[in-house]
Prior knowledge:
Layout: E1 4-8, H1 11-28, E2 33-38, E3 49-50, H2 54-61, H3 66-72, E4 76-78, E5 80-84, E6 92-96, H4 125-132, H5 145-149, E7 152-153, E8 155-157, E9 163-165, H6 187-190, E10 192-195, H7 197-210, E11 214-217, E12 220-225, E13 232-237, E14 242-244, E15 247-250, H8 257-262, E16 267-269, E17 278-282, E18 286-287, E19 297-303, E20 306-312, E21 316-323, H9 330-343, E22 350-355, E23 359-361, E24 365-366, E25 369-371, E26 377-378, H10 385-397, H11 409-433, H12 442-448, H13 455-464, H14 484-494, H15 503-508, H16 512-532, E27 534-535, H17 536-546
Parallel strand pairs: 1-2, 1-15, 2-11, 5-19, 15-25
Antiparallel strand pairs: 3-10, 4-10, 5-6, 7-27, 8-9, 12-13, 13-14, 16-23, 17-21, 17-22, 18-21, 19-20, 20-21, 23-26, 24-25
Helix pairs in contact: 1-7, 1-10, 4-16, 10-11
Amino acid sequence: MIKNIVVIGGGIAGYMTALTVHDVFSKWYTDYTLTIIESSKLGTIGVGESTAQNVPSALATLGISPYQFIKESEASFKMSARFDNWNYEGESYHHPLMPISHLVELNLNINRQEKPVVFDPYYNIGLDILYMQGKNISWEEIGFNRLIHENKLPFKKQEDGSFEILKITQPRPSSEVSYPSNDKASLEEIVGVHMDANLAAQFLQKTCKQRGIKIIDEEVTDWTLDSDTGYLKEIITEGGDKIQGDFFFDCSGFRRLILGDIFKEKWIDWSHEIPQNNVSLIDGGVKYKEGEGPDLFTKLDAQKHGWMFKIPLQHRIGSGYVYSDKFVDKETIHKEQVEHWKSQGYDVEIGRQISWTAGKYERSLVKNCLAVGLSDGFIDALDGNALIISLGLLREFIPMFNRHMLIDSMDYKDYNAKALDAYEHTKNYIYFCHLQKRKDSEYWKYFKKDENIPEWLKEKIWLWAHRPPRGYETLTQTHRPFGIGSFCTVGMRAGLSGVHVSARDLKEMDMEREGKQVYDICQRVEKQVLEHSSDHKDVLNWINNSF
């Protein structure tokens, strides 16, 4: 029986884990304890965090207002990630979070049982039609790029000064686009956020305390294992406290206390495939100039020796330079950082240096412990994938507790397989991003060498050279943060996928007529959404003054 649950480590991962456990268990049981052991001496990385839709969704599920979270963490909205200079200098393209189909309900006359659709209609139909017509456009151009460029959100201002999320209802391709209907659309379904990681952690810690979760602010110095089972029995703190537990969550970050120090779990090293192992942070972030404000997208800015992330918060830009010390020293990186921002008109100071080895533990769920977040593994910082993976896997794990507060042995195998798949899938996507055309240094050339490319990618690259990726090949699941749309967006820009679809292809799938209708509808809907959308700053001001 599991009655005493202990979370090792605070931060966003630890607090979200504790809140999730509390939300579920408090509805089922009364006879259990939940304790967080953290040390305020360690702090959080706090550079700023770029997230996807699953963060607002997770908050809403826990009964936490995403708007309150945005206010408390000085967050901004995120609708895409923009790749800058990954193919050549001056080139950029968006990887949107929200295709137009998130706001449009379409009832397509496609009988999938009699005639399977091999192209994922969620992303592909409109683009297929355009290629059939000889119009060479990119994937992101059938989404909401105009909104992103104009810094507008799909929120309509109401008469009382509040804002509501747009919902466009389109029952059938032949009918007219109608507005409004707000019965299904919600914030957490369509946008992510850029958040201040330190402020977000403080808000979540406060929420934990409000909900009665016990927090012990001490460092872990020792532990006791059960002599018969080898399970973790108790944690001993620097103050001499002995906290017994039946189940433990390892949220200790890069320290990796339980899986690493205690259980000595096998580490899978991916540094051969993912050589980047350092990030140089800008101290305090980059302050906005007068009149500037947050964009609706994360900037992933390719540089000579790696790439920079630029995360636009309400009052600053969180930024760091990701690189590999196999190819360049930190002094060169620091110089490039300062010169880069100086060329943009900003004065910055170099802050902390964070190092890691790309990889994860062979198992995430071991004995009576589950590793969550950085304590489980890390690849690199591309588009906030670490937090996205963590929340997805946590959602997979919680239902494994049965009515007797036990975890079945088959659940161990199933969960560990999903966790490994999530990280491997993300690793493949990150590597895929580095296969873009840039090759002006040893860093970028490294990814182009055939012997370094993951086997899964080798197979897919060969297939995609002859036809577009198909949905089932990169299937998006709860635990997988990057699906078919992500691979298509990057692959098409990098010339890594065959993108031309003939009229014959579409006709054979009975999609020619339907696809044209879908594309025409999307064009009309996009125009109407633009008419009713609101300025990003206006929505943030409303949130800050109303919650």
